[in-house]
Write a structure and sequence with these properties.
heterodimer; A: 557 residues; 2 domains; four-stranded mixed beta sheet; 20 helices; globular; B: 320 residues; mainly alpha; MetI-like fold; two-stranded antiparallel ribbon
């Protein structure tokens, strides 16, 4: 009997020990008072940031009285930030110098935790699951919308209103629009969101005899893709071994979802969005069905690279500008401005004709959305540590200095002095010994970009903030926007409209993964497998229709 | 205290000293065991407290709130969960059978090789894939099987005329008919070499006199394999199968790096389902993930106990 009892005990132990892998042992704090003494740099702490912001939304007492606590004093132990790949000064690209110069300028220690860009949301989830909360971090718009109502983020509306940079802001609307209906501001956007434009390889257009200015409608666009696939635009003597367009997925998982293939989606917005003041599921609308049929046709015709289904952004762009253009595509819709220069540089590096054409939005896009979509801006947030004084200090040290117009803002915009940029006289050459060799010569005091630390053949372009998108310009006169970047930014600004806003509801937060899986199943069934769009859509309704209805009911309350 | 009577397997009655006295007499060993015990308690038993979150709504922010069996109700009513559950069993069990059959065949083949150098070289070559990470393996096979004009396999099929002018390239890793065979092929390619180690060890322990006797009886090579080698391997095969059967619910990495949304129907397993529910959404509910994990563990535990029973019957002793 004892033996059986022991066996049962052991068996039970085994079950829970195996299951424990999926659980989390750190108990979060039940309210803010438990966390008032927690410090941000203590990542081993098992406490969770405050869950209830009600006690923390007020400005700190010293702020209310008009006197801010000295952040040097409050943040003696330094601050920790979590960033994605938009901090271009990565570990192998001069981050240590950026960090050192920031610390010298601001006067406190900075710890940067840079997570994998393409899996940032997953990585943040893992970080939080492990109980590691930074002082501040970057969040994409969709992610931010879901975290904003949870109480994890500090309401920085007062701090923002009293920020030193207020008198220099030229673009105020973006942060005002981030406020919720009660005026709370849980995130700070130092720059506009930017969006994607369609780039076409000029050499390919010439090879198939198409003038870019003649591409005005979807039919024109599609004929160009077909010509790129059916002909021999790469000039290797083989027809049919190239594609019209490649993208990282037919449907993105981050708002605005359709920005990598806008010509196919046209006026469709396959997500929950507001239409005439009411939230609807755009995925079930006829516009989405028509878009899926366009994609289906393009997939069958070879106008789209079939690897679009599984390609990540990195794979898609590397395939696009690869040295061997066999299997590449002529069209790539990607980020505007800096990426215009980046794509060009990569084509040069891979010894491919670098001339690109930026395609204006086709008629079907301008007639519906009005232009390319300007995504909701990524934001910086402060994790509420339950200590308003500390939160305010983090704002002052990190956000307020980020737009100081001078030394610190330059670090965020251009990177570290004499590492990423310089004002000292110097001469250097890129791509030496090739036909793309280019020499640069600068006089003393002339602001200029240096070669990238991890790629001496490419000039450094920017760090985290894009000088063209930042809401408060530099006041020190430093500017290094290349002609292409300037042209790209201007082109996008002239051809963009704001993307629909992302929904926030409890059910959507819980079920967004399930809904996205169901959407991808429809896209695959229709586009890749050539299935019937109505049947696939019915499967979507059967699978997640009730969940979507619940989301819409919550959103339309 | 009176000494406890214990009957040995040989039927001899011995008297056992009290537990306290035995611990004292072996105190040196017990002291040495303390670090292990502490490690086990901290690393294995302390985290077990986390399973209570299967009954809570538990997100990265906020206080966990009890929800009873709500997560289990949701789990059992979600088609994607059941798809993942059955996929786990089907993929794992087929993996187990295929890799073991391949390992046995390759072991026998290696055992029959007379040239020692060739045997060692071949062994090294077939072990190598085991040491490659799954991420690397997935990248290599993704390139080979690419549906674009640069895909090697599609190129060969086209060159050999298997794919005609009008045929589209096959997207092997995004096709529900092809994904599983490809997955199993990769599994066999990667793990067969490693699996042969235990069988080769068993084969080296077979009494040579058995083969000599078979020679005298005029047995052919195939007959020796059939009547000497395979029976000698039988016990090991069953042991390996039983031991591995207990791990069938642990399938994750190999699937995670090879699957994609087009083939969830045939590839999504419990662990990848948990991963997506936990990390692929901005604000995950760890409670639900823990509930799915607990269910997976329960099934795993049942399999372990079943294997233990099977092991007792086959080998005369259990595995736990």
């Amino acid at each position: 009997m004892k033996k059986k009892a022991l066996s049962l005990l052991l068996a039970s132990t085994m079950v829970v020990s195996l299951a424990a892998c999926g659980g989390k042992s750190d108990a979060p704090a039940s309210d803010t008072t438990d966390n008032s003494n927690s410090t941000a740099t203590d990542n081993s702490s098992t406490t969770t940031p405050a869950a209830d912001t009600n006690t923390n939304t007020e400005a700190p007492a010293d702020t209310a009285s008009g006197e801010k606590a000295d952040y040097h004093e409050v943040l003696k132990d330094g601050i920790t930030i979590v960033v994605d790949g938009t901090l271009t000064a990565s570990a192998d690209n001069g981050q240590a110098d950026f960090e050192k110069q920031w610390e010298e300028a601001v006067g406190i220690d900075l710890t940067i935790q840079q997570l994998d860009h393409s899996g940032y949301q997953d990585a943040v989830g893992r970080l939080f699951a492990g109980g590691d909360y930074p002082d501040a971090m970057i969040m994409a718009a969709g992610m931010f919308k879901q975290y904003a109502p949870t109480g994890l983020l500090w309401d920085l509306s007062d701090a923002y209103a009293n920020a030193e940079f207020q008198n220099r802001i030229t673009l105020t609307a973006i942060n005002e629009n981030l406020k919720d209906k009660d005026g709370h501001l849980y995130g700070f956007a130092p720059a506009y969101g930017n969006g994607c434009v369609t780039y076409v390889k000029k050499a390919w257009l010439d090879a198939v005899g198409i003038d870019a200015s003649s591409i005005k409608t979807y039919d024109d666009y599609y004929n160009m893709l077909k010509a790129f696939h059916d002909g021999d635009p790469d000039g290797n003597g083989v027809d049919g071994d190239t594609y019209g367009v490649i993208a990282a997925g037919f449907l993105g998982n981050e708002a605005p979802y359709i920005n990598y293939l806008p010509e196919f989606w046209q006026g469709a917005y396959p997500a929950l969005y507001q239409k005439d003041g009411k939230w609807v599921d755009g995925f079930q609308e006829d516009a989405t069905k028509e878009a899926l049929l366009r994609l289906q046709q393009a997939y069958a015709d070879g106008a789209i690279d079939p690897e679009t289904l599984t390609a990540s952004t990195k794979i898609a762009r590397e395939k696009w500008f690869s040295n061997d253009q066999k299997g590449s595509a002529g069209v790539f819709t990607y980020w505007a401005g800096t990426w215009y220069q980046n794509l060009t540089d990569n084509l040069i590096k891979n010894e491919v004709n670098e001339e690109l054409v930026q395609l204006p939005p086709i008629k079907e896009i301008t007639d519906t959305f009005g232009g390319y979509l300007n995504r909701e801006a990524p934001v910086w947030v402060i994790i509420d540590q339950g200590d308003p004084v500390r939160n305010q200090a983090v704002f002052d040290a990190l956000f307020d200095t980020m737009l100081d117009g001078d030394v610190v803002q330059t670090l965020w915009v251009y990177g570290a002095e004499d590492v990423h940029w310089s004002t000292k006289a110097e001469e250097f050459t890129t791509n030496a010994g090739t036909d793309k060799e280019k020499s640069y010569s600068y006089a003393d005091g002339e602001f200029h970009m240096k070669p990238s630390p991890n790629d001496p053949n490419t000039l450094w372009k920017k760090n985290h903030l894009d000088s063209a998108l930042v809401i408060s310009p530099l006041t020190n006169g430093f500017t290094a926007e290349s002609d292409l970047m300037a042209e790209g930014n201007k082109f996008f600004t002239e051809n963009c409209v704001d993307a629909p806003s992302t929904p926030v509801s409890e059910t959507y937060t819980n079920e967004s993964g399930t809904i996205y899986d169901a959407k991808l199943a429809v896209v695959t069934a229709v586009v890749v497998d050539g299935g019937d769009v109505d049947a696939a859509m019915q499967t979507y309704v059967d699978t997640v229709g009730s969940i979507v209805d619940q989301c819409l009911a919550e959103l339309n309350q | 205290m009176a000494k406890k009577k214990v009957m040995t397997s040989g039927g001899v009655e011995v008297r056992q000293k009290p537990l306290g006295l035995r611990i004292w007499n072996n105190r040196g060993y017990y002291i040495m065991f303390i670090p292990v015990l502490v490690f086990l308690l901290i690393m294995h038993y302390w985290p077990m407290l986390g399973v209570r979150y299967a009954f809570y709504d538990y997100k990265p922010v906020g206080t966990p709130t009890p929800v009873g069996f709500a997560h289990f109700q949701k789990m059992f009513s979600t088609p994607a969960f059941w798809t993942a559950f059955w996929n786990t069993l089907e993929l794992s069990i087929a993996n187990l059978l295929l890799t073991n059959v391949a390992a046995v065949v390759v072991s026998i083949f290696l055992n029959e090789m007379k040239n020692l150098f060739a045997k060692k070289t071949l062994q090294t070559i077939i072990y190598l894939p085991h040491f490659m990470s799954w991420a690397v393996v997935a990248s290599i096979f993704s390139l080979f099987l690419s549906p674009s004009s640069t895909g090697m396999v599609n190129g060969i099929l086209r060159d050999w005329g298997i794919l005609g002018e009008a045929d589209k390239n096959i997207y092997f890793l995004a096709n529900t008919s092809w994904w599983r065979p490809i997955y199993w092929f990769i599994q066999v390619w990667k793990e067969t070499g490693w699996g042969t180690i235990i069988y080769l060890a068993t084969l080296s322990g077979i009494n040579p006199e058995l083969y000599e006797a078979a020679d005298i009886d005029g047995a052919s090579r195939m007959q020796k394999i059939r009547f000497v080698t395979l029976p000698a391997l039988a016990n090991t095969i069953i042991t390996v199968l039983i031991l591995n059967l207990a791990k069938v619910m642990n399938l994750f990495e190999s699937v995670f790096v090879l699957y994609n949304n087009a083939v969830y129907e045939v590839s999504d397993v419990i662990a990848t389902y948990i991963y997506r529910q936990t990390f692929a959404i901005a604000l995950p509910n760890y409670g639900y993930s823990t509930a799915v994990g607990l269910f997976r563990s329960l099934v795993g535990c049942v399999l372990v106990l079943a294997c233990n029973q099977a092991s007792k019957k086959v080998r005369g002793r259990g595995i736990v």
